[in-house]
Predict the 3D structure of the following.
Amino acid sequence: MENNIAYWLQQIAEGDRTAFDALYNHFWKPIYQQVYQRIKNTEATEDILHDLFLSIWKNRNRVQEINNIESYLKTGARYLSFTYLNKNNAQYAVDIDRVDIILDDAPIEDRLHYRYLLDLIQEEIENLPERCKLIFKESRVNNKSINQIALEYGLSKSTVENQINKALKRLRLITKDFHLFISFF
């Protein structure tokens, strides 16, 4: 079977639609089950599979760079599922285009993991207590110094430092958990 998959990938890279259909038919059912099990929505599951396989076709000239297509598809499906769940359960956004620019030369699997990590970080920032979130964003997003933030909000420098450290501590925990999570897949 691995020989068939390698052949399909080679043919897909050359624009062969029949090979793409064969790859799709081989993987769609287990990927569908994985996604549906996570999100429990038939229409969204079909959309996710469509987007996942569409990305394979659109990037067919780079498809042979994927070391393990099954792992790639499962990782992509997991990422798209989490993205769907996050968008429907919490309102926040990550600039995915910036990720593509930053990681342009990285393997596709690494880019997916990085995108998911960015989503986790953004979600955690949005879940910070309001004052902590405000101070953290002033520091990290608006690049304001501790002194500037303290003066602008009438706070002591130590309060600003404590709020930034509190936010960073929570972000370290989420990234630590993410690396542990990724090691299982």
The chain has a mean pLDDT of 80. Residues 121 and 172 are 9 Å apart (CA to CA).
